[in-house]
Fold this sequence. Notes:
alpha+beta; two-stranded antiparallel sheet; about 60% helix; about 15% strand; rod-shaped
Amino acid sequence: xxxxxxxxxxxxxxxxxxxxxxxxxxxxxxxxxxxxxxxxxxxxxxxxxxxxxxxxxxxxxxxxxxxxxxxxxxxxxxxxxxxxxxxxxxxxxxxxxxxxxxxxxxxxxxxxxxxxxxxxxxxxxxxxxxxxxxxxxxxxxxxxxxxxxxxxxxxxxxxxxxxxxxxxxxxxxxxxxxxxxxxxxxxxxxxxxxxxxxxxxxxxxxxxxxxxxxxxxxxxxxxxxxxxxxxxxxxxxxxxxxxxxxxxxxxxxxxxxxxxxxxxxxxxxxxxxxxxxxxxxxxxxxxxxxxxxxxxxxxxxxxxxxxxxxxxxxxxxxxxxxxxxxxxxxxxxx
Length: 334
């Protein structure tokens, strides 16, 4: 509870249940010609009951269950006195072949992966899930000493987050690699493909700023939004670069190869992209703003997907219109 961000921590009660334990004495049972299964069968049928038939009343059917009456099995001492008939015909007591006692235990038996389990429920507010759980893990590892045979695992939303993070560690590099390969196939030049890839981190800055302004913690939904923003930012850069290349190649064909001609081509190509880019940005923002201001079911997740896109639509167009032409000039000046 002392970890920042933890609003409540509730542990299940692991005691409070009362259990009658029948510990069979193997040596004593063997002396009477009984094995473990024989004694367990007697306990289960005499105390728990055994269905010996069925009765039908109209359309209803009821099982006929046979066991010792309640007054014979309502105390530990009376359970010890339960008669047991051996295969040799001798009549003994259940207490002669088993140790019967009452022990404390959990009110309900729960298991996970075939192991008994007890749960501690933790609620977190005002802090991101990952860092809060890491702090809790450090505190638990420092202050909780586990007996042999015990272990701790962290489940719930944190488990899903860890699973998704592992997938993102593969998806994000694969996405960037695919974008780079497609760029190289488009331009057939390493430097131009590297130019577009180098602009992506700066294009994503707007999404990071808006996430910070809105107070959103980085989540899987935000990661999806940044992946989508990276695709749009790469598209902006590609289209701008294509216009610049076409304008410059047209001047090369005409034999104009001076630096002034290069500057003129860059201005022409960049200016041609202003209106289409402004229209693209306006359409994307107009489509995402309703998601940003919505408050219905699932709106929190959708806002975290849309926020990087909305913020990126401010920096990505500016980057492609101002930075890409300048870098292209530096690449082509020689």
